């Protein structure tokens, strides 16, 4: 990638996260479909990496440190109504998304692939402030993380 943060991917993710923040299930679905149809597979993978980083930063900020499994359980319990409203999944699956983002999920509860990406976008949306200013202020930190981790963005890496 020639830029530290791909502008089109960033803006598409912002639209997905904003739809989650608004609690509009239909808009959330439409924005996810738009992203999936508009971005080639490799850039969708980059979008997932962005979500991985952004959600982890937001969760660490919320709990004040690197979250434990117990911290993530508590976050899921508190934010579940908003998450469930847009995803139609239960609190256990929400917790699975949070645990999977931190590689803490036991095998039967692990969330992977597209379900994890959509879940992370929904989680980020419901965990951000009302104006999405938290999303925008994380961009320079994401750019720095991208510069520090170029191997993650090579095709075939995870």
Record the SSE blueprint.
Layout: H1 7-22, H2 25-38, H3 41-63, H4 69-87, H5 91-101, H6 113-127, H7 133-137, H8 139-148
Helix pairs in contact: 1-2, 1-6, 3-6, 4-5, 4-6, 5-6
Write up this protein.
α4 packs across α5 and α5 crosses α6 (113-127). The chain is globular. The chain has eight helices and no strands. The protein has helices spanning 7-22, 25-38, 41-63, 69-87, 91-101, 113-127, 133-137, 139-148. The model has no long low-confidence stretch (mean pLDDT 93). The longest helix has 23 residues, at 41-63. It has 158 residues and is mainly α. The chain is 72% helix and 0% strand. It has one domain (7-151).
Helix content: over 70%
The number of helical segments is: 8
Q: What pattern of helices and strands is seen along the backbone?
A: HHHHHHHH
Question: How much strand content do the residues show?
Answer: under 5%
Distance between the termini: 16 Å
Spans with pLDDT under 50 lasting ≥5 residues?
Answer: none
Overall, the morphology is globular
Average pLDDT, all residues: 93
Structural class: mainly alpha
Radius of gyration, in Å, reads 14 Å
- Summarize the main sheet: none
Q: Would you report the number of β strands? A: 0
| Number of domain units | 1
């Amino acid at each position: 990638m020639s830029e530290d943060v791909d502008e089109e991917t960033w803006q598409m993710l912002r639209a997905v996260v904003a739809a989650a923040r608004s609690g509009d299930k239909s808009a959330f679905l439409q924005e996810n479909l738009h992203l999936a149809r508009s971005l080639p597979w490799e850039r969708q993978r980059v979008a997932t990496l962005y979500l991985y980083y952004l959600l982890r930063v937001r969760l660490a900020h919320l709990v004040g440190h690197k979250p434990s499994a117990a911290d993530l359980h508590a976050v899921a319990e508190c934010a579940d109504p908003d998450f469930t409203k847009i995803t139609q999944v239960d609190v256990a699956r929400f917790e699975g998304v949070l645990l999977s983002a931190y590689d803490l999920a036991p095998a039967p509860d692990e969330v992977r692939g597209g379900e994890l990406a959509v879940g992370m976008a929904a989680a980020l949306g419901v965990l951000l402030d009302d104006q999405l200013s938290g999303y925008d202020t994380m961009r320079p930190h994401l750019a720095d993380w991208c510069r520090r981790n170029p191997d993650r963005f090579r095709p075939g890496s995870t």
